[in-house]
Amino acid sequence: GGSLTKLAYYSTVQHKVARVRSFDHSGKDIENEPLYEISVQEEITARLHFIKFENTYIETCLDFIKDHLVNTETKVIKATGGGAYKFKDLIEKKLGLKVDKEDVMTCLIKGCNFVLRNIPHEVFAYQKDSDTEFRFQMNHPNIFPYLLVNIGSGVSIVKVETEDKFEWIGGSSIGGGTFWGLGALLTKTKKFDELLQLASKGQHTNVDMLVKDVYGGAYQTLGLSGNLIASSFGKSTTADKEFSKEDMAKSLLHMISNDIGQLACLYAKLHNLDKIYFGGFFIRGHPVTMRTITYSINFFSKGEVQALFLRHEGYLGAIGAFLKGAEQDNPNQYSWGENYAGSSGLMSTSPDIYPMQRTRSGTFDMLEMDRLERPLVNLPLLKDPSTYIPDTVDLTDDAMARKYWLTCFEEALDGVAKRAAASQPDSSDAPERAEKFRQKYWNKLQTLRQQPFAYGTLTVRSLLDTREHCLNEFNFPDPYSKVKQKENGIALKCFQSVIESLDSLGWEERQFALVKGLLAGNVFDWGAKAVSDVLESEPQFGFEEAKSKLQERPWLEDSYSQWLERLKEGPPHKCALIFADNSGIDIILGVFPFVRELLSRGTEVILACNSGPALNDVTYSESLIVTERIAAMDPVIQSALREEKLLLVQTGSSSPCLDLSRLDKGLAVLVRERKTDLVIIEGMGRAIHTNYYAALKCESLKLAVIKNSWLADRLGGKIFSVIFKYEVPCK
Fold this sequence. Notes:
GO molecular function: ATP binding; hydrolase activity; metal ion binding; pantothenate kinase activity
CATH architecture of the largest domain: 3-Layer(aba) Sandwich
Protein name: 4'-phosphopantetheine phosphatase
Helix content: 40-55%
Strand content: 15-25%
Number of helices: 24
Structural class: alpha/beta
Domain Damage-control phosphatase ARMT1-like metal-binding: 409-717
CATH superfamily of the largest domain: Uncharacterised protein PF01937, DUF89, domain 3
Subunit structure: Homodimer. Interacts with PKM.
Number of domains: 3
Family: In the N-terminal section; belongs to the type II pantothenate kinase family.
């Protein structure tokens, strides 16, 4: 680009993963042996890296490429943007590679599609005078059509309809170059950033003629406010005085932004589009330009169209050029996820926060994205995927909740680091790595205190996910693996007696006991401090003790009577999808008896567990072993497995929370094939922190025990209050 070089490269990352494998128990006494074997293995995964260098340091950038990224097989380097011409000879000479220039607009659009598809909180609206200057929008798989307004030297307006179909529909020669050029003539300031700095301090009303200057107030007949600009630079024709550089720069900025805003609005209306993304060096995260463009779009569209900006706008061209070069590997067939541990966040535009970091106008220094093993898609049962928001509370907006949860995660950090080190007793460097993890996550939390919007909308889910990313970064793939192994073994020994006791009850009594068991199982959550304190101090705390902790009915949220009525009066459900939560007592003594009852009613069951570890949540590979053991004890489960009426699947997630818009494609296919008509979501992370308000096309049960006193208080209850939410969609 004109002032920054953006570099996109692919690497393979070797890191540790925890694997579980069933022991071969043939002919052995298995009474006192662990349930399964845990091994930590090295796994190689793919990662995309994006880095920025200022063009004045192009030699440093090329040294970095030469030292780290070029091997003997590399023959060509893809490049796009003005610098692909300007630095072509230098690059070829220094790296000994051929520069393959790619079309700028094609690369921009490819890059834009990639970030829109893979980063849920990529898009934001800018609101200068609100508490949170960045208002993020949840991206959904249906990203087309949209308008991309690229403001470089001039303005290009492109309509994007599909992955490969886009057309240039208009533009203007009055763009960023005009602001820069005229600004230089008016103020004698040659640098773009300095010009914007002047504009941010200026008062345009000293130079511009307003409606009230012409009519003495508002022009009521046409509904025009008195403060509206009637003529840019209009006062300079009549005033004898000298105008300040700041005021002239501000007037010029308004003039060009308003022109671009009106043009973009007219094209959006002409092509019936309501999504307009702005990019180019004129925008590049500058608060003054984002503010003026936002105002202009809002004014000319009468609030119907919103100006939208992209967190990684500066990288779009580089990403697109990379994708063009990697076409034979087809990166688009995969889903990718932002790695919070290796990415720097969006900087504040407020000068009093980290003033040094805004000396350059690049708002983003580094982005890392990990390739996910399986493609992710929407849950087909979401009522309206375009309005689905997984998270219940937006901590970016809610200052009180933000302060509480950030403190909560800070206070828990020493315990998490200790647990991580203890999970690898045979590793001599585990304490050192645990300390590095602690420091890294602590620093992330401090950044989020200052800039809650750094990685998009701040939520409990993003705080948990960032912690998991940081643990993985320092090779702690599953700190709770031994805890889960032990708890699964203990719970399996109790399974038969729990089933016998349930089978001895009458039908109605049994339904309540099953729900109570599901809720009691959900108490066993090592992620909740109130519970982990009890589990560490009282090792004998078990299923019956958990039942006694539960709130008596009526529960905090209680539609159990409606659920019971549905079971009594309605036909059996065709297929139930259950999102399981914790290992041990939760899945074995809580979920499985419930699954067994559904199967006995003639309902097929899809049991969905996390693909990767998070806290003590049960993983898909652990669920396979646990189910095999239960089937050996229970004919109902055994025959359901054999007849494929009980199916185990992975969610595609490694989070303690649940995003129903990013689920494993195989799960989505199965949900459709089996005509699923009941969704059960259990646990605080999946049913309260996320999905509490999620609307589905079919019946749903959301149930959890609130194991955090602050959250309980906020919801109007006490610790161990019960949420039992049975919802039927409106016809």
